[in-house]
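User: Second chain of the day. Same drill as before.
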Amino acid sequence: MSDIKNSLSLLLFLIFLFSYLAKLMILKKKHKIQANVLTKGKTDSQIRRTEAFVKSTTFIWGLMWFLLSVFEPTISYWIVPLARNEYLSGLGILIMALGLAIFIVAMISMKTSWRVGIDKSTQSSLVTDGIYQLTRNPAFVGFDLMFIGLFVTYPNILTLGIAVLNIWAIHHLIVQEEKHLKETFNEEYLKYFYNTKRYICF
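Assistant: Same format as last time:
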């Protein structure tokens, strides 16, 4: 069962990495858009600090996801799991898969407006249809589910810390992004802001 879990986890990681890089490449090659603006461009110090924090925490999360998928027996020797349960691991894989699916749908729905970070240098359109009718931040909801899913799949103190840290970092980026969108789209965004939840239920 452990081999199946690790194989599925690695497959999900590779799908995530491929879809993320493919979106960046399509925007760059086909539309001449530099979509990865995290810690780049003209932003104030607060946004830059938040983005640097998100960049660091998500890198650690991605690295840990890969390492656990490939070297779980070795890592488990050094970092004792909080629980060993096949059903729990299966649930974790399902949570990660759901988060990944939501993330991919969100990327596709954003079309050429999708950005990694807060882009103050180029004007994009406000996307409010499709999955964006359910939540203002579906890509981030997808990320949060993947953070939680990694912990549930590999429950140890390190993945718990990574999940909590990343959810906290992403929340702060969302708050900064909301300020930017209010300044950029004014009434159009405010109407969307008050009619659509930040995280599906709240």
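The mean pLDDT is 93.

User: Great, on to the next one.
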